[in-house]
Predict the structure of VIT domain-containing protein.
Amino acid sequence: MMNCCGLITVQKEPVPLQSIEVELEVRDHVATVVSTLKYQNKEDKPVEAVFVFPLPGDAAVCHFSAVIGQKEIVAEVKEKQEAREEYDDALSSGQQAFLLEESEQSPDIFSMKVGGLAPGESASIRLEYVTELAVQADDGLRFCLPAVLNPRYQPQGSEGASVQVFSVPASLVPYTLCFCGRLFSPRPICKVESSCSLEPLQYLNTDQTQATVKLAAGHKFDRDVELVIYYKDAHQPTAVVEAGQTSAETGTLMGDPVVMVSLYPEFPQSVMSSVASCGEFVFLLDRSGSMGPSVNSKERHQTRISSARDTLLLLLKSLPMGCYFNIYSFGSSFEHIFPQSVEYSQKTMKQALKKVEEMEANLGGTEILKPLKHIYSQHCIPNQPRQLFVFTDGAVGNTKEILDVVKKNSGSHRCFSFGIGQGASSALINGLAKEGGGHAQFIRGTDRMQPKVMQSLRFALQPAVEDISVTWGLPKGVSVTVLSPPITSIFQGHRSLIYGQLTGQATEGSVTVKYSLAGRPSQNQLHFSLKPAEDTGLTVHRLAARTLIRSLEMEDRELRGRQDGGIKEKVMQLSVQSGVSSCFTAFIAVNKADGKVIQGPLVRRNVPTAGEYLSQNKLKQIFSVENKKNDNSVFFPKTNMVISASSLDVIGCKEATAPKQPPRDPLLQLVSLQKASGCWILDPDLAAALGKTSEEVTSEVWATILALIWLHGFKMDAKEEWELLAMKAASWLRAQNGRNLIHKFYLFTPQAVSRNFWMPIKAN
């Protein structure tokens, strides 16, 4: 008799996926990932296993194969409809077949079908992809193995079919994950941080340029596996030339050498220390129901929406006088605080903060396209560059439609995006920043939203880089075809990647990026060897192919209905030639060799991914009459899954009292009292926040000085969060002829900012 405790299907039958093993190899800033998925059919009839799962949105999937017994069947890349028909025909004739395809709506969702597993039979599926690692604001390189896939909201009227996601609470995922990685760098590896528990970093050589990292035993599918890798003297400009494939035709992308150039522009300190005093800042906040859960399991009281409210407080207090701003929020519908952007002042800031305090995650689904279109329909304000900040958990199904709209309007703004929570769509968050010429950040696990958002605000306040051009210095007889889209934005510490297809032979070349910064011409140049590197395989070629494929796919969507399908043909040809997936192609493998015919109809089994923790509101919906079953198990209509009564305790489905709200963070309490001009005023609340009496705070100048000393003395660990508003306060003091007071009390000296100096400060 079958044990029905834990995750079961509606028919109380098992899930055939048993385990996932992931091997990561990182070379400098490029990662190669090999995943092995082990299936076993424990039923007495043949099954078809369907697994919808997430991958990084910019991954180049380049290999798919299956091992049945001792035989390996390697998949081919074919036109998607052709691959589907071949898969169906194979199953109809009793053959085993395997299909892997990318979602047409979002490139970070894939569907794998394992068809024709006979009773008792096992299969190992191998999936390989390559991707570049994103550069963090703190110079770390971020790798993320997505493990959480949340249902995606598909607005009515969106193009294409929605992706059906089968997800369950993390504690009920029925398969295991084993993860290990090898790191190789030309510079020493300083450390590796993670939101997951890791075994100690093991160095493989004395100069610490090679190391291994492993996931600790007992990993739960409640979070994505995220690594942040730190190198010594990180982010030096590099260029890697990779030889072409010997079997490929010369003159094609795979047959010719390809160069990958990584540039890290450095701006003068005088520019970096300056802050723009103009701009139109538009904040777009997700208020869908999925923004209601806690930010992480350790701080249940801090929900995503409450953290977003605190972040908006810091943002509004840090804006420069003279700018314009507005705040939009969205769910199934959208709202805005002002009909159009207004000038930043004490009055408008106060109005906005009052509205922000009332914001809850109560606007329904995640429909971001309509508010974006409305924002873009608003006329830009002369001499006020538009900066758009988007906060969302990324649970949307129409990713490509959204990115197309952002790219269409990229000339009128910069877009800074923030993915909140586990399972935030990397395709959406990275795509918004890429197409909008901005910067992307992810807030996961124990991450605080505020420092990451303030880092992006500093990027937004940097002078815009204009007139960007790239020139190549190559010897006679050597030419380059650039495969990357034009560089549209440059930030301090932000990597710019360029891929180029080379023809001809020589020993050395160079590439120069020229641009205008704060009205002054600047440039960065890199000289590099044209000799192909060893042991890179075809990694650079595949990344270059992926880059070109994504550009052509977007061009095809822009010209849909106005061209004859030539671009689609180019994409399919490049995808087949390079072995890299696209939205028009799929991997297909059919086991034709052994001649066995699988008897009987196939039974479909949907393999679930981990979803997020269920909120109490969701639980109330679950425990409705139509969902509650006689045996106290619960049926999830969207996932077609049943969770037995004995498993409800594991996922926290017992009714619980709401956690007691802790007192407000003293930093936020102090920040909330600052005026738009940058000063603090005489106020009993301010005295209380500083731990002083009203008699000790006797003027606005003194109030502001004491507030700044308190920040430096007690909140240096959160300096990234308050640094901009402190700069504004210091500017206000200087405008009040307060420079002498600043020097008199050593405001910015070590003595003044120490905790010991705080107590003797008096206002008399």
